[in-house]
Every structure is written in C-alpha cells, then in structure tokens.
Amino acid sequence: MRRISRITVAGAATASLALVLSACGGTSTSSSSSDSKGDKGLAIAYDVGGKGDQSFNDAAYAGLEQAKKEFGYETADVEPTDGETDADKEQRLVSLAKQGYNPVVGVGYAYAAAVKGAAEKFPDTTFGIVDDATIEAKNVADLVFSEEQASYLAGVAAARTTKTDTVGFVGGVNIPLIHKFRAGFEQGVKDTDPKVKVISQFLTQTAEEGGFSSPDKGKSAAEGQIEKKADVVYAAAGLSGQGVIEAAAANKVWAIGVDSDQYRQEALAKYKDSILTSAMKDVAKAVYNLAKSVEDGTPTTGIVKGDLKTGEVSLSNSNPKFADDAELQEAIETAKEKIISGEIKVKSS
User: Fold this and answer.
1) Half-sphere exposure of residue 344, counting CA atoms within 13 Å on the CB side?
2) Pairing of strands 232-236, 197-204
C-alpha cells in the first residue's frame, strides 16, 4: 500500500486550496486538507456540464465515491468554469497535484493539453484523462472506450423497436468522439433493418457553444426529429441529452440514454418510462480502477480501453419493457457475440 496512515481531519479545506481552486472552478472535498500528502487520494476535474449531468461527469463522480469509501482517504472534485482556457484547466490540475492528490483525473478530451502540461510538472503524480488517447507519458493513463460498440447495440434496439421506420441520433458536438457514437448507431440500425431511416444531427460545432450543456438545444433537436416521424431518439450529448429525453417523454416516443443508466437517474425519474435503454460506458469503473492501481502502488499508465469484451461498454436492462422483450434481447445478444468474436467490425467514423 502506498499510504501508511488513514487520518481524516474534520473542518474546512486549507485556504491555499480554496484560493487556488476558486480561481479555476468550484471544488468539494471529503474532508479537510491534511499536512500529510499521503492521506490524499483521487481528485477529478469535471468536463463541460459538470457534476449533475446525469451522464458522463456523474459516472466519474461515482468512481470517486467508490474509491473514497473503500480507501478512506480525502478526495476532491472540481467544476469547470465558462469560457476557460487550456491554461485554466492546467492550473486546476496543477493545484490538485500540488496539494498532494494522486491520481488526478481530467474528465473529458478537452483536458488533453492540460493533463500533458500538468504531468510534465508533476512526474511523481499519476494523471488520468477520460476519452483521449493522444498523451504518451510515463505518468498518464488514457482512459478510453469503444463507444461505437455499445452504440451499435443501441442501433439494433432502435431498429427493432421503431414503428415508423425512422429513428434519430442527436450528438452534442461535431467531433471525432461523438462520430463514434453516430457511426456505431447508424451501422447497428442498417445491419438490423436497411429500410429504417436514421436522422442524425449535431447540436454545435464546438463544446464552447453548449453542445454538451444545453438541455434546451437537445429538446429542440429531438422535437425536430420527432416531427419527421422519428419514434426512437438516441442522444450522445451529455447534459443536453436531458432535453432529448424530455422531448421523447412529452411526445410518447422512445429515448435511448448514454454513458450512465439514465433510467435509474433520480433527476430523470419522471421520464424513465420513456427511456428504452442506455448505451453505457463504465467511466466509474475506469476512474476507480486507476485510483486502486495508485493505492496498490502499481499505477496504471498508457492506453486503457474498455469494450464489450471487458464489459466496460454495454446496454442497460433497467426498463422492464426492454429487458422482458425476448426477441429483442436475443437480437442484441447475437450482435454482441458477433462483435466480440470479430465477425462484426463496428465502424468508428
């Protein structure tokens, strides 16, 4: 074990941490800062949308909570700010590393430059980044997923469920990461039923325009697709996906959630009967596993990829109407087995 003691000190965080982090996003910690750096563990810096997005960021927080509970150490989670630069992000990560948090995780591809810079400054700290595989450093873990595989299964589900032969895809931002979701979904639909039409739309060209953080944009896009007869709409749009789900519920069509099991999200409870399934990626597990590797004294680095074979991408079965549909489940299981075996090769763009 890398930490000798497990001291928990009650009270407020140190003034230095508060001052530094107040300049680059809000933070919460599990206990006060300790004089001993050895008692500090996992820290995460949220992507656009922040904590409470019922999706990607909340999944990272679940991993942090699991690590905090199991290892009994202090954690920190820090919110983004509007209009921030790469330098702001790097300052956020540097401040956490300087305070003794280890590992420090940037949640989202937007942290690539920041993680690279912070990792160079703190070579003895392990850094992680979710959804980016471009950083090659001895102290960085690139936590990535085969989102296209889960999206393919979502496409199978959509094609099997639609009554109008029209389904929709709403992507938050027009970037390669979201192209993976769209490509997999469209391939899954077409492989299942070529006559089903897929209407695809991206909300914005950049994250700064609110593609991942604007439920109103998601709602408007979904309403437009529903007007064109889409009766199943899949959203890969972070917090904006909440608007897609709201629109689906209001129009009595199906929504497919993303990243987390959105059927079980408390904030979406009133819409859950309209959430057919969710194409999940286990960000919580990836974040927790990185923390555990550091705790065990063998930090994970390099590219760490989760897919259907590892069980880190999947479809949720929480909705009984989805889970109890034997023919649909058989079709999904068959597709899953073919993807794992390599018989089906899912496109990522």
Assistant:
1) 24
2) unpaired
Name the region of 342 (left: φ>0; alpha: ψ -120 to 50; beta: rest): left
Measured distance CA(84)–CA(100) in Å, rounded: 24
Q: Please tell me the distance from the alpha carbon of residue 219 to that of residue 239, in angstroms, as a whole number.
A: 11
Q: Closest Cα to residue 199, out of 245, 231, 168, 235?
A: 168
Q: At what angle do helices 241-250 and 215-227 cross, to 10 degrees?
A: 40
User: Which range among 43-47, 48-52, 103-107, 331-335 shows the weakest confidence by mean pLDDT?
Assistant: 48-52
Among residues 340, 288, 290, 251, the alpha carbon closest in space to that of 68 is found at: 288
| Sequence-separated (6 or more) residues with CB below 8 Å from residue 41 | 3, 67, 68, 71, 73, 74, 75, 101, 102, 103, 291, 294, 295
Mean pLDDT in residue range 174-196: 97
pLDDT exceeds cutoff 70 at 7: no
CA pair distance 8, 40, nearest whole angstrom: 10
**SS3 per residue for 175-215:** CHHHHHHHHHHHHHHHHHCCCCEEEEEEEECCHHHCCCCCH
- The C-alpha atoms of residue 143 and residue 304 are separated, in whole angstroms, by 5
φ, ψ for residue 264 (rounded to 5)?
-95, 0
Write the CA distances from 12 to 50, 86, 100, 196, integer angstroms.
Answer: 22, 28, 16, 57
pLDDT mean over 186-199 = 98
3-class DSSP string for 330-342: HHHHHHHHHHHHC
**Cα angle at 72 between 69 and 75, to 5 degrees?**
80
Q: How far is CA 80 from CA 89, 90, 122, 291, 346, in A?
A: 8, 12, 21, 21, 33
- Here the tokens at position 106 are 């940037």
Least confident of 27-36, 107-116, 183-192, 200-209: 27-36
DSSP conformational letter for 313: E
